[in-house]
Design a protein that fits this description.
157 residues, alpha+beta, SH3 type barrels, 2 domains, four-stranded antiparallel β-sheet, three-stranded antiparallel β-sheet, 2 helices, 7 strands
Length: 157
């Protein structure tokens, strides 16, 4: 064999060794992946998958919260006087069906106002309730009513 043939054989052997190392490395990586999957399969108990149990318990908890939720509307949805004005009914005027029309001053200086709610007249002072709210302040031209954490301001006519 001359030098040229030895060089060609050495190159072929080098290519074969590099291909062999490349394939060995690939097979080693595949083996580690398969080994991990097999260990996971062996350690997994049938019917007690923790991820599935956690998902089911969170879904049951969410369903329980939704079933216990109580919907409380602010206003009665069946009250047609909020939409339709009936003859002789003044409950559609004002705010939330409450209309205040005058102020009365007592001897001791406390203010009271005359309010109409659902066609009935009421004389209310600070702290009284009307229309599901509590009168918090009465001034010379406005009445403040707190209802459902909301402050309603009514003009006095």
């Amino acid at each position: 064999m001359n030098l040229r043939e030895k060089f060609i054989w050495n190159m072929i052997v080098l290519c074969c060794i590099s291909a062999l190392l490349w394939n060995t490395w690939g097979q080693f990586n595949k083996h580690t992946e398969i080994d991990k999957a097999y260990d996971k399969f062996i350690n997994e108990e049938v019917g007690t998958d923790k991820e599935l149990q956690n998902m089911v318990s969170s879904l049951e908890e969410n369903l329980n919260i939704r079933q216990n939720l109580k919907f409380k509307p602010k206003e009665n949805p069946l009250d047609l006087t909020r939409v339709v004005v009936l003859d002789g009914d003044i409950s559609a005027r004002g705010v939330k069906g409450i209309e205040c029309s005058g102020i009365i001053t007592d001897k001791d200086g406390s203010l009271e106002t005359i309010c109409t709610y659902r066609s009935k007249r009421y004389v209310v002072a600070i702290g009284d309730s009307i229309g599901g709210g509590i009168v918090s302040d009465i001034s010379s031209n406005k009445v403040h009513i707190k209802k459902d954490k909301e402050n309603i301001i009514l003009e006095i006519y």
